[in-house]
Amino acid sequence: MSDLPDLFPGFDSHYIPTDAGKIFVRTAGKGEPLVLLHGFPQTMACWHRVAPTLARSHKVVLIDLRGYGWSSAPEPEDEAHTTYSKRAMAEDVLKVMEHLGHVRFAIAGHDRGARVAYRLALDHPGRVTRLALLDIIPTATMWERMDASRAMQVYHWTFLAQPRPVPENLIRRSPTEWLEYTLASWTASKDLKAFAPGALAHYRAFFQDPARISACCEDYRAGATIDAEHDEADRRAGKTLICPTLILWGNAGIPAAGTQPIDIWRSTFAPDATGLGIDGGHFLAEENPAATLEALEEFF
Questions:
Q1: Which H helix or E strand runs over 187?
Q2: Does 111 qualify as catalytic in the annotation?
Q3: Measured between alpha carbons, how far is 1 from 12 in angstroms, rounded to an integer?
Q4: What is the DSSP-derived secondary structure letter of residue 30?
Q5: By the 8 A CB rule, do 180 and 207 touch?
Q6: Is 1 part of a structural domain of the chain?
């Protein structure tokens, strides 16, 4: 991947050891630490339009989640899918931040990265100072609201969660075409024009690796099982997020269909959340970076 464009000039690069192997990290800036976590089917490259500005006021830490980008892609260890549970991924974030010398930090997460972020904040409430969640609702709630319309919109939730290696084998026959269809279908414009050529190059490169395709599937298998179980257990226990929480969603994004995302969060894990809808689809930081950046800067 050394021939890929550098989307973060001036950022330092690190490989940080964790239980999952090496996690790839880029850092820049000074001030309060702020972690940025990407989603599926992307890498930290999704933040390239907002991270440099955030680094003017914060120590920005970009992380490729385990199985994604340049981070290690460990083989799944058990049938419970714990290897790619959001709880396990959150532990990677803690290890990275401790290695960098940060005990407490803020997080902004998009898509799967947002699921890692809120799981970390629920499991380790003293560690997260502020939390921004981009274009998601809680995992258990997604499954509970999976009617026919939602299932068509997010068919990948059930497809990728099918037993190994069914989705892996189907995707590997044409990984770039499947990736590009997926990216385009979640934008407001239903095409790839929102994505910079350099960012697309990173997404295509990572999605050529069969081990990473498998990791993505394991991510969704965990989402269909152990992640939802963790959500349900916390909800039964009355657990909520204690840090200030910002909910952002695309007005043409995935969660916007139906009940407003902020209302769902307020009724589940974030009773005091603030938030707003942003013009665009699912990929807020790339489709509408100006509005996304304004909301994040004001909150953090």
A1: none
A2: yes
A3: 17
A4: -
A5: no
A6: no
Domain count, the chain: 1
- How many beta carbons lie within 10 A of that of residue 13, not counting itself? 12
Per-residue pLDDT of the chain (300 residues; tens, 9 = 90+): 568 999 999 999 999 999 889 999 999 999 999 999 999 999 999 999 999 999 999 999 999 999 999 999 999 988 889 999 999 999 999 999 999 999 999 999 999 999 999 999 999 999 999 999 999 999 999 999 998 988 898 999 999 999 999 999 999 999 999 999 999 999 999 999 999 999 999 999 999 999 999 999 999 999 999 999 999 999 999 999 999 999 999 999 989 888 899 999 999 999 999 999 999 999 999 999 999 999 999 999
Lookup: tokens for 212: 């990473």
Q: Which of 64, 111, 135, 219 is catalytic?
A: 111
CATH number at residue 274: 3.40.50.1820
Contact 242, 124 (CB under 8 A): no
Give a yes or no: residue 38 inside a domain.
yes
Q: Are 246 and 295 in contact (CB under 8 A)?
A: yes
| C-alpha to C-alpha distance for 292 and 284, rounded to whole angstroms | 6
The domain of 215 spans 12-299
Q: If we measure between CA atoms, which residue out of 217, 155, 219, 153 comes closest to residue 186?
A: 153
Helices 86-99 and 226-236 pack at an angle, to 10 degrees, of 90
Q: Which of 38, 48, 230, 282 is catalytic?
A: 282
Predicted TM-score (pTM) of this structure: 0.97
